Structure formats: structure tokens, C-alpha cells
Amino acid sequence: MYVTRKCSSCGHWAVFEFAISGGRASETCTHCRAAKRDLPWDRDARMAHAAYQAEFERLCEKHPELRELRRPGDHLKLAEE
Ligand SMILES: [Zn+2]
Questions:
Q1: What is the pLDDT confidence band of residue 79, given thresholds at 50, 70 and 90?
Q2: Pairing of strands 75-76, 2-6
């Protein structure tokens, strides 16, 4: 699946490829290809993920352009960052 996050490597908001397998998760920035692999995917991680999605929804109210990030490779920087 794809999720929108701020990338700590390239500093852009970008579409991440998010994969879960065997109880572990990995995410890859589709803009700069920075990847985090072998992340725990346990109950805490699932709750943090859900909380993040809610936070992102709130952020989209303020920055509707974040909703435009849908396809792999899409990325942007928010003006005030
Ligand atoms: Zn990146």
C-alpha cells in the first residue's frame, strides 16, 4: 500500500511504499528511495500507524495540497517548512 509521510532523508512529503510481511514492516520513499526495513509490526506499531493516519488527516485540513500526493514519486515541500 502507499502512505504519505514526511521523509527524513530527502525532507519532502512523499508517497511511501509500505509493505508488511511476516510480522515486520518496511517503508520506502518513492521519491529518494530511502528505505527503512525490518520495522516491528506489532500492536503498538499498528496503533501508532492509525494515530499517524488521523494526524495526517488533520494536517490535510490545513494543507490540502498533501492530498495530491497519490502516485509513486509524488513529493512536495510545504511552504512554511
Ligand atoms: Zn525521501
A1: confident
A2: unpaired
CA 31, CA 54: separation in Å to the nearest integer? 23
For the chain, the domains span: 2-70
Distance 19 CA to ligand 1 centre (A): 16
CA distance 35 to 59: 24
Ligand 1 centroid from CA 13, angstroms: 8
Bridge partners, residue 2, by sequence: 17
Angle at Cα 4 formed by Cα 59 and Cα 65, nearest 5°? 50
| Ligand 1 center–CA 43 separation, angstroms | 26
